[in-house]
Every structure is written in C-alpha cells, then in structure tokens.
Amino acid sequence: MDQPLNPLMCPTCGDPLRFEILDDERFLVAWSCVNCGLIRTTEPV
What we know:
Strand order of the largest sheet: 1-2-3
Protein name: Transcription factor zinc-finger domain-containing protein
Helix content: under 10%
Number of strands: 3
Oligomer: single chain
Number of helices: 0
Largest sheet: 3 strands, antiparallel
Order of helices and strands: EEE
Shape: elongated
C-alpha cells in the first residue's frame, strides 16, 4: 500500500522541507529542500 505524501517531506529526496512566509497578507509561503534545492510556493485561491 502506498503511503500518503507527507507535506513536510520533500517529494523528490525525502528530506524535511523548510518553509518561509513571503507574504503574510496573501498567505504566500515558500517551501524549500536544502538537500536537492526543490522550491514550491503555496497560496490559497
């Protein structure tokens, strides 16, 4: 059985993700992986 994706783990390498709030008024957050360099941003619609 497949495990659900953990939002706090990098989907590429499995290392923990770090997050930084870019804009608290728009709830824009950047998630980044220190190991492989993946960066994702999340913003509610």
